[in-house]
Amino acid sequence: MQGPSIEFEHVGLTLGATSILEDINFSIAAGSIHCIIGANGGGKTSLVRSMLGQMPHSGRIAIHWHDNRVVGYVPQALDFDKTLPVTVNDFMGMTCQRRPVFLGISRARRREIDEVLDRMGLAGKGRYKLGNLSGGERQRVLFAQALIPEPALLVLDEPMTGLDVGGRDLLVGSIVEFAGAGGTVVWINHDIAQVNEIADTLTYVDRKVRLQGNAREVLRGGAAAGLFPSLELAGATTS
Amino acid sequence: MDWLYDIPRQYIIGLADEGVIHYTFLYAFVVNGFLCAFVVGPLLGGIGTMVVIKRMAFFSQAVGHAALTGVAIGVILGESYTAPYVSMFSFCILFGLFLNFSKNHTKMSSDTLIGVFLSISLAIGATALLWVSARVNTHILDTVMFGSILTVNDTDMNVLLVTAVLTALVALPLYNQMLLASLNPALAHVRGIKVHLLEYVFVLLVTILTVACVKIVGAILVEALLLIPAAAARNLNRSIRGFVIWSVIFSTASCLIGIYAPMRWDLPVPSGGAIILTAASIFLLTMVIRMAVPRFREAAL
Hints:
heterodimer, A: Rossmann fold, three-stranded antiparallel sheet, B: mainly alpha
């Protein structure tokens, strides 16, 4: 599997009279883990949604695909009526098969679903009602659906929200494994220490690109400038 | 297509003639009603689950009321006042599409917008019906509003059958996509689903279904048959499979009982009213079961 490389050229986004993004320029290498960081309201989600073709942006966003063009997307949360009669298997089935889920899930798909649920620590929870799961378990289901069919690009919008330490380790392990196999990861992440540990490159967005480049170098520079008060890095002065 | 109905019709009438089933089935219109019930029940029960998930009950009510205006327009334009399908379909489809377009292009919440459109459609319908009331027997309008199997003929059955086939052909392959688009539009979009287009498709399906079922259930009550069986099924189920299957069963049973009971016991109730009262009884029963039985109580959590 080989993930795509991505280029952002002069990307802008204006909604009504509000400028959300201005002249965004950076690129993401194939097979890398690229984190997008920044304050709330800085335009991170809008940037990712522009990349996914969901926002009327200006400029150019080029995704250079290889054979596999599948995008696995993990939204921030699954905001739905929790009383709806939808099981975990129903949800997984509706994302990856054409046959109506009320007619059952094909054997091949069932195997794949069981396997990813198992990998996410959700073995045996396929028949649970989605609304009855804890927030962390639902996040893991959201991550699991992004892995079927096998994606070349993983787009993650703060997937760690509500996860306990075990859940975080599980997801981080899967993300690193995915990138190690050649997949590209675009990840909106607020956890600076985690970004420092895992990301290859990062972009710090606050309407414009404020910082961009190798993750550890950018973070060291940012920490020295007092941009990341919670981050303690060797050789960097923290405020 | 009349031969299609003649075969089961003659068979059922034959059974009644031999005393195997109740003599009520000697009447062709009762058999027609039953044949329609086997189409309307599964159709509205199945689509009703999506109406509940998408929270569009109010929308189908607005379309049902728009059918009244469609009837009035049909009479004004000289269509048969017992089956003004061209005007009903045309007006209701335009009404549904415009409503959805307005919803997508304004920042208003859908319940407010549907409320506004519902009031407008009722006002136009009432005005137009008053205008045409001098030209037709106003009892015909009762048929449109509350349904009557006495007036169901082969044309109505043709309209229903074509609508049913069309709905099944469109809705079955798109069911998962509609479901996912309702739960998370952004995720659906990434999966290649055309979320807005699907919304329009669903609006069209609900609209043509509503119009096609007007003769059987009535314009005022067809929305209830989309909603109540699905709501009853939701009371007892925790999976989509159970939800859809039980909704179809409840809806079909309501139609069959609602058509048969007034004939069998000579009750002065229109078919639409009887169907909805049956569905409402089933809903109340499922509510009691849900409250009384712990296993089902969990389904609602």
